[in-house]
Predict the structure.
Amino acid sequence: MRIIGIDLSGPRNFADTCLVSFEARGEEIHLMEVREGAGDDQILAAISGLGQRERIVIGIDAPLSYNSKGGDRPSDSELRRLVHEHGGRYI
């Protein structure tokens, strides 16, 4: 199982957006990757590259609807679509 944590930041503070990836192995979890200053494209690429056979848990620390212009950011809409398409749900 892969565990992904995403901490989104505001539109003027991209440097503080972070993505971490862990892999569960038995009773342990192992840190696989840390991306500081991750942009939308990097976040989508990291999640899309995980494959479809293993279980994936994603935790996001920020409202998906944040956009200085209102509504979802294009990357948030795409993330919602991908999660729904693959049978995922939001908690």
User: Anything to note?
Assistant: The radius of gyration is 13 Å. The chain has a mean pLDDT of 81. The chain has two helices and four strands.
